[in-house]
Amino acid sequence: MRGVTGNVLGMTTELNHDETARELATDRGTLRYHEAGTGEPLLLLHGSGPGVTGWRNYRGVLAELSEHFRCLVLEFPGFGVSDPCEGHPMAMASVAVADFLDGLGLDRTAIIGNSMGGIVATQFAIAQPDRVSKLVTIGGAGRSVFAPAPGEGIKLLMEFTDDPTREKLIRWLHSMVYDPAIITEELIEERWALATEPKTLEIARRMYSSAAFAAAGKAALASDVTPYWAQLGKITAPTLLTWGRDDRVSPVDMAMLPMRDLRRGELHVFPNCGHWTMIEAREAWLATVLAFLKRDDARVS
Question: Key word Repressor present in the record (predicted)?
Fold first, then answer.
């Protein structure tokens, strides 16, 4: 939905796509983003999956967040909006965050990250803790304790990436939500168009094809690098984990490790809600997140 205000997935969008769109030139290509509001910066990082963009992840909550913060919705390289990238999309996303903040001259920011974006934000907060004032994650960040891995939604994502059909896209979309009514024809069509764009699909296969996923798993087992989920104690920023109780992509038991290891972490679980907490539990999620972001956390713990 470009440049049109109105109802999106049952939510009123008050901000215009084209009027909020911005570009930032970097040595690795042009990063595109949306900017709205004034005040302290708030960086919003989107998830992965067919047809995802930062705008589509956050368009339903951007107006409310921008009443309090200078919101910056970054479009990761390789997802069809910012310039394409070489290498693994997750690695390029991490590089893009640093390039983006440096390019805008921002030394420190609060960050909201959805799914993959939550992992990228968590990794950034581990690597550069002084640059993150507060951290909010939406599912994803952690490690399965009881549920089998990968989750149902990830398996369906791999099936689509290996052999993209409209039917497989619909099955994957339904795994993202608790309420199937959210998956409208409009949503399906906009996701399908971007997900099947040749370059975007080629880059997605570096991350979510069954072959790439298996290779990444073997590499992780052979690596002597400590995984991010075992370094959560390095994060100094107050951190809010938000999770849908009925998440079929990253089951809620993944929150147990971060809930224990984060020095200043807290967890809020939303009932009757899947992976897209900011969409399915919109009002409750906004109230919870805004209260957390606006709260005075100057104390040292």
Answer: no
Say yes or no to pLDDT of 274 above 70. yes
- pLDDT tens per residue, range 232-270: 999 999 999 999 999 999 999 999 999 999 999 999 999
CA distances from 113 to 117, 123, 146, 192, 202 (A): 4, 11, 24, 23, 24
Decide if 50 contacts 160 (C-beta within 8 A): yes
Domain that includes residue 126, residue range: 6-149+227-294
**13: β partners:** 6
DSSP type of residue 60: T
Tally: H helices and E strands in the chain = 13, 10
Query: How many CB atoms sit inside 10 A of residue 51's CB?
Result: 22
Q: Is 191 domain-assigned? A: no
Give me 249's structure tokens: 């992509």
Annotate 208-221 with DSSP letters as a single string. HSHHHHHHHHHHHH
Domains contained in the chain, number:
1
SS3 226: coil
Classify residue 78: in a domain, yes or no.
yes
* Residue 298: predicted pLDDT: 62
Longest CA pairwise span in the chain (Å): 52
* CB-CB contact of 124 with 94 (8 Å): yes
- By the 8 A CB rule, do 62 and 282 touch? no
- Report the alpha-carbon distance of residue 272 to residue 140 in Å, rounded: 17
How high does pLDDT run on average in the chain?
A: 92
Q: pTM for this structure?
A: 0.92
CA 259 to chain centre: 19
Decide if 113 is inside a domain. yes
pLDDT band at 299 (very low <50, low <70, confident <90, very high): low
- Catalytic: 174? no
Q: What is the pLDDT of residue 218?
A: 84
